[in-house]
Here is the input.
Amino acid sequence: MPLDALSANPADPEALAEALRPAILRVSRRLRQEAKKVGVSALDALLLGQILRNPGVGVCDLADEEQISRPTMSGHVKRLESAGWVSRTGDAEDGRRSGLTITEAGREALAAIRRQRNDWLAAHLAQLPAEARLALAAAAEPLLQLSAGQP
Here is the structure.
C-alpha cells in the first residue's frame, strides 16, 4: 500500500520513501542485469566509471570512495587490469604510488554497458504515457541530488 499512503500526503518523506524504494530497487536490479548481458558486472561498470571520471585515482582512494576494503579493491583492480580495461601509471611525486587510468578497451566496455542500459531504459520509457515520462523527467534532478547525499 505504499501508493495509498503517498496519495494521502505526497510531501510526507516516509510515505515517499516507502513508495520509491521498491521502484528504485527494481529499476536498479534491471540495469545491473543489462550490464551482465554485455559481460561486465555492475561493480566493474561502477569502477570503470569512477576511474574514467578520476584518472590517476589510486586503489586506496577508490576503495575508500566505494567503501570496500583495500585488499578486496586491489583484487578487483587486478581483474580489471587482466581484462585490459585499466592500466597503472606512475606518480611523479611519489614513486611508490601508482594511479589508475581507463584503457581504450575499458572505454569501449563502459560504452557498451551504457548503450545496453540506455536501450533497455528507453524502450521501457517509450511504453509509458507522456505524462508519466514528464513526471520522471521532473524527478531526475531530485533523484541525482538524493543519490549524492545533497539536500
Remarks:
- Helices lie at 2-8, 13-37, 42-53, 59-66, 70-82, 104-125, 130-147.
- The two ends are 27 Å apart (CA to CA).
